[in-house]
Amino acid sequence: MSDLAAQLDRLATPHVAPPLDPGFRPASLWCKAFHALVKSSGKAVKIGLAIGRSDGTVFRLDTEMLPWSDASAAVNTNHVERLIKYQLWMKGGSRVWIAGCVPLAAKIAEIYSATGSRAFDANLMGDRVFGEPFQVKACGFDELPAASEPTVSIGGNWKGCRIGFDLGGSDRKCAAVIDGKTIFSEEVPWSPVREKDWHYHWNGIQDSITRAAAHMPRVDAIGGSSAGIIVNNEVRSASLFRGLSTEDFDRHARTMFSELAKTWKVPCVVMNDGEVTALAGTMGLNDKPVLGMAFGTSLAGGYCTPQGTLTTWLNELAFVPLDYRIHEAPRDEWSGDVGCGALYLSQQAVGRLAPCAGIEFPDSVGLPERLAETQKLLQRGDAQARQIFVSIGRYLGYAVAHADSFYALKRILILGRVTSGDAGSILIEEANSVLKKEFPELAARVIISVPSEKEKRHGQAMVAASLPPEK
Q1: Average pLDDT of the chain to the nearest whole number
Q2: Measuring CA to CA, which residue among 304, 284, 283 is closest to residue 292?
């Protein structure tokens, strides 16, 4: 461990630490300490970053670092690599330009190569999501492409007989909506994540839509909310389909939502569940901007801008780095990376922290069941169960502070099964305690809230019904 790394680790020690995870080093505090170190050096090096897609979309984010040397290389690389990682999963792209330091660009290219530690991210963002090899390029500041970020006006269409569905890792919800009024809603448990037969997913979705359709004279449109990366109704990556072979995913899952439109012969628009969360928040709160965070089997995110529009961003917060601890942070089994969002703000966090609280489950008990049992313990006043949600709430506070470096924040809407019952109020209380202690300016500006219990469980499907345009 270098002297600089150890120094930053100490400076990133939280004042409001998660009681079950004292080793946690929030990204927000680490970055704050790093920027202070750069400023105090009097030798800040400007770094220009751009992330782009083959369609010409470009996102820009500039930063500063210490002068490149053997002593500073590790912390400089960590700072820039983690920023790029956040931007990739927040906004999405397959091309990275780095201006200001050729050795840094070479190191980042190595990390995001087919044999590097971020090979998962490079492969998924490259070939699987954006259809081209992932690339990192060193360039001069005059070669950095200008930002070009389109926005999307979508949702809020209520005319006619509409069906909306919301697909999660432990249940699927569906609503029948006529001229904006929900006349039927239903939640059905399912377990799609490990399922190896694509028919399970197709038949489940069809079953929910059919049951909703039975309550209406006709079906004019279908809208959907689903975990995963969805571009133009096409599933590019989703934990819901992790059990499928690559062949079955490409042949059946990738185009599943387009097939729904053909089968029902109506317009069908499906978006990431986080985007629908943000849209629901903007509609329900009559306020903006809104960052939505769904604490489910994984962590989904979505964002409505200060202008009230959705974006073409991915907002896959499950993979954004939130923990910068030197000693290895919890590792995500899918991506292989450490310290990422889903391990701190989802059912996975509950499962991970339960043993730390002295609550043991047999290996055969899944995450939804572990969450349900932990929430029962919380309801009965179990102090150790409460510590789990206190810890997650403090994670949330530091995660919001880090998100403020990337989003314009005003409203944070949290939902998902982890927020059900008393847990939601604990999460908000603890997150606010972090903001008041560590980030008072942000505490005065940002409101964190949860929707009503009914809205949390079924509102997402209703809002999804409004996605397809009116005829």
Answers
A1: 93
A2: 304
CB 273 within 8 A of CB 460: yes
CA 117 to chain centre: 21
**Residue 435 — left, alpha, or beta (φ > 0 → left; ψ -120 to 50 → alpha)?**
alpha
Tokens standing for residue 186? 């239903």
Which tens digit of pLDDT belongs to each residue from 183-228?
Answer: 999 999 999 998 999 999 999 999 999 999 999 999 999 999 888 8
More confident residue, 60 or 168: 60
- CA distances 178 to 164, 205, 217, 453, Å, are 11, 20, 10, 22
CA angle (296 as vertex; 295, 301 as ends), nearest 5: 55
Block residue for tokens 């964190």? 448
What are 216-219's contacts with CB under 8 Å, separation 24+?
216/161, 216/163, 216/176, 216/178, 216/183, 217/161, 218/161, 219/161, 219/162, 219/163, 219/264, 219/266
Closest by alpha carbon to 161, among 181, 137, 141, 142? 181
Q: Does residue 267 have a cis peptide bond before it, meaning omega lies within 30 degrees of 0? A: no
β-pairing verdict for 171-178 and 229-231? unpaired
Per-residue pLDDT, 238: 84
Neighbouring CB atoms inside 10 A of 139's CB total: 16
Structure pTM?
A: 0.86
The set of residues, in sequence order, having a beta carbon less than 8 Å from that of 327 and lying 6+ positions away, is 23
Look at the block and give the residue holding tokens 């400076």. 11
Q: Which two tokens stand for residue 148?
A: 């070009």
